[in-house]
What does this fold into?
Amino acid sequence: MQTTNVTCVICPKGCNIEVDHENRDGKEVVLAVRNNKCPRGYKYASAEVVNPERVLTSTVRLAGGTYPRLSVKSEHPVPKTSLFDCMREIRKVSVTSPVKMGDIIIENVAGTGINIVATHNG
Amino acid sequence: MKMNVNVAVIGGGPAGLAAALECRKNGIDNILVIERDKQLGGILNQCIHPGFGLHVFGEELTGPEYAQRYIDMLSDTDIRTMTDTMVLSLTLQKVIRAVNTTLGVVEIHAKAVILAMGCRERTRGMLRIPGTRPAGIYTAGTAQRLVNIEGLMPGKNTVILGSGDIGLIMARRMTLEGAKVSGVYEIMPKSGGLKRNIVQCLNDFGIPLHLSKTAVEIHGRERIEGITVAAVDENLSPIKGTEEYVECDTLLLSVGLIPENELSRGAGILIDPKTKGPVCESGFETSVPGIFACGNVYKVYDLVDNVTKDSVLAGRYAAEYIRSKSE
It folds into this structure.
């Protein structure tokens, strides 16, 4: 068994969470989670040991808007290892105004199954 | 042109929008929000990262989403907005002089004023770093605006001085956009940024955080070529012999924020020398009756959720003030 200290990034408290886990047939299995102050922390810390994920935010080119960029995000967290693959796809995209917050900008970005959506009207 | 309003809100960021909305909810009409940018939302629009709204909306939003929600709420009311409009002065009598390209100079007479101008970043000049004065030195927030709003990259090889949250956020942002961030240097023994930002902005990308170290010289003629950093002692003075040269073409400064109170000072409002915000006895009312202050112009906040909560109160008190005057 191994214990990993995880600093929670879900809220500004930044709890120091301890996760006991062990490797079973090449897969990390969570045995216990301690010092989390809320259920979100439990979820985050477990995922951090098994398969770390992050919400990715960036911008895409915007034609005809007030400003030349439109802010976007991954609708759900994407695996940390695919962040740069997602960025490569995001960089290629241009959209034209009008765009509404929540509009899908890229479907299934970098094969993650996650959509990139607008986070502002543009 | 001359206008009469019940409430004039200076600044259309999270503080101004929340205060204006709360004023309206409390039965006050003829409210005007004045914003110098082309769009409402203030600095939230360039804070494209997540981490906002957990307390106010019960879910995690990005800055632009948080802003858009308030912009949408505002557009469902009869609150008027003037964007791309710069306020030039404010007087004790609550007369605002503003200018924009369509109306020219406008004189706005208000029964109550809510100050929501936000804050500014400390600059190189305030740090007094010796050396040349080349291009390539930006405050972290300026770089954030360039990258996220204007779509311009400030440089390729970045060093960040100061570990405030905006600096940490920009370390990640520049890295994701393909720049190299060789390190963050913090003069204090501890980072001023949130723990979660150290984890997800630096540790995630292997960007080193050097504590108790600061820049002692800037090099480069036209464009910055590097900085000399040195360790500091407990008095924050550089220790001789610890100097190292760090190559870079861009230096971002994330060394603190100061409430932007030029207009307040012009109106004769008392400023607290410690917080650099207006002195407010109670109810977010400044030393001038009927002029209220909220958000980062009042004091620098860590969290926009708390800005919203306090600004709602400021809006409520401003509404109460107007009611008490008309009775």
Notes: The longest strand of chain A covers residues 16-24. The beta strands of chain A are 2-7, 16-24, 27-34, 53-54, 57-63, 69-74, 78-79, 94-96, 104-106, 116-118. Chain A touches chain B at residues 7-12, 14, 54-59, 61, 66-69, 71-73, 80, 83-84, 87, 101, 119-121 (CB under 8 Å).
